[in-house]
Amino acid sequence: MQEGKIIQSVAKAMRLLDLLAASERPMTLAEISTQTGWPKSTVHGLLSTMREFSTVAQDSDGRYMLGIRLFEYGCTLSNSWTIIEIAKPFIQHISYETGEAVFLSILDRGEVITLDRADNRTGLNTAAEVGCRLPIHCTSQGKLFLAYMPEQERKAVLSRTVLAPYTPLTITTPEQLQRELVEIRAQGYAIENGEYKTGLRSVSAPIFDQNGAVPYAIGIIGMFRQIESEQFTRATQIVVETAKKISKFL
């Protein structure tokens, strides 16, 4: 959206929702005012309006939190996304076959969001929680989206992305990242080799829509010893084959 078309009051309301969503506890008016840098009167007016629509709620101490209406919106949106229904049996089957965690992801505003997942047999929490946002430059699904998006869109996303070093193996230079993106398109899948979290490795494959775009990615993540292992190679083959099957449904 162009800068001149942004309605500032709406933008501020969205900023408040982001702030409350990121907080691990309800927030006071003073805390919200301090973190946003806005006057208390402005914050109070926005929150009072949002409370009327149940997108914001208050606890018994007057602190603010996300409201029940957002949960209702989320349920409605989830029910309308047929990709989750289509992919779920595939995700569960892959997890059963490999014993590893499996995830379904989309890209939003330069970050990866987990739409659905299946846990591994050990119960270890290796896959990101549903709804969680992940960096684009150091996850297999993020690099996959970058590799398959149009060049102009990729340049725009990367211009806003800080190649932060999450581990010693994280790609932190545009040149190195560009070389890997070329390789990803050539081989048809993306690998994350301990770049986001030490000890974790993942592989993601593209799910194509009817227009040939890649709106979704499916992948496996686990504590594989190395990406050259037989287990990881098998996981890669399964993910690529499954992504093709889901693409046919779309």
TrEMBL record:
Annotated HTH iclR-type domain residues: 7-68
GO biological-process terms attached to the record: negative regulation of DNA-templated transcription
InterPro entries the record matches: GAF-like_dom_sf (IPR029016), HTH_MetabolicPath_Reg (IPR050707), Tscrpt_reg_IclR_C (IPR014757), Tscrpt_reg_IclR_N (IPR005471), WH-like_DNA-bd_sf (IPR036388), WH_DNA-bd_sf (IPR036390)
Domain called IclR-ED: residue spans: 69-250
Tagged with keyword Chloroplast: no
Keywords, in A-Z order: DNA-binding, Transcription, Transcription regulation
A GO molecular-function annotation: DNA binding
Function field: May be an activator protein for the gylABX operon.
PANTHER family for this protein: HELIX-TURN-HELIX TRANSCRIPTIONAL REGULATOR, ICLR FAMILY, HTH-TYPE TRANSCRIPTIONAL REGULATOR RV1719
Identification of the protein by name: Glycerol operon regulatory protein
